[in-house]
Q: What sequence folds into this?
């Protein structure tokens, strides 16, 4: 419908079973932060920002607080950031 009415290139993404079945595992913090960063992304897009990625920066652990930022996507796209070994279960 989008392709026919707007005339732009489109593709569909099919959610897999795990994505469809695990929403009940999201914490209130996850849900609140997802809504917050999504809203900030929309605001940025509406002001003309392009090629950007919204970010969370942890400000405090106790109490847990984050700030939302924005970086050029080219600084993070196709880059690898390794998960620290001390965070992995042994």
A:
């Amino acid at each position: 419908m989008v392709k026919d009415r707007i005339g732009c290139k489109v593709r569909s993404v099919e959610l897999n079973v795990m994505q469809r079945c695990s929403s009940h595992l999201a914490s209130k913090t996850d849900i609140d932060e997802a809504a917050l960063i999504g809203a900030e992304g929309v605001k940025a897009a509406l002001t003309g920002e392009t090629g950007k990625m919204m970010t969370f920066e942890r400000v405090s652990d106790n109490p847990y607080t984050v700030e939302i930022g924005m970086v050029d996507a080219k600084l993070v796209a196709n880059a690898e950031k390794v998960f620290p070994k001390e965070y992995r279960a042994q």
In short: The longest strand covers residues 52-61. Residues 61 and 67 are 12 Å apart (CA to CA).
